[in-house]
């Protein structure tokens, strides 16, 4: 960019998946958080793709896709099942959305800030 060119700045929505134009940003956000937690557990245990596949029931090739952010190959259910096989507890809470607003799908770990 040269000095005489103008830069346009666009404010994001706060959701990467929405800003990238995904048709299902809430689902992608949930998948991303779940997949990130699976990855954290596997890294802490020092497991590679083969050990991870054996422990989770997912294909070893899927872990390479997850590392590249290609989450469309996973379902939320598969990621929840993988986490429980890795010893994680899953708590799903359904509550009321704020009046006039659409509900949210959130994933929060026990170590996340409230």
CATH class of the domain at 22-85: Mainly Alpha
What do we call the CATH topology of the domain at 22-85? 434 Repressor (Amino-terminal Domain)
What is the level-2 CATH architecture name of the domain at 22-85? Orthogonal Bundle
Largest sheet properties: none
Beta fraction of the residues?
under 5%
Structural class computed from helices and strand pairing: mainly alpha
Computed Rg: 18 Å
Strand runs, count: 0
In quaternary terms, these chains amount to single chain
Average predicted confidence as pLDDT = 81
- The CA-CA distance between the termini, in Å, is 40 Å
**Elements, N to C (H/E):** HHHHH
Uncertain residue segments: none
Total of helices: 5
Helical content band: 40-55%
User: What best-fitting shape do the alpha-carbon axes yield?
Assistant: globular
Domain HigA2-like helix-turn-helix: 18-94
InterPro entries: HigA2-like_HTH, Lambda_DNA-bd_dom_sf
Pfam families: HTH_37
Protein name: Helix-turn-helix domain-containing protein
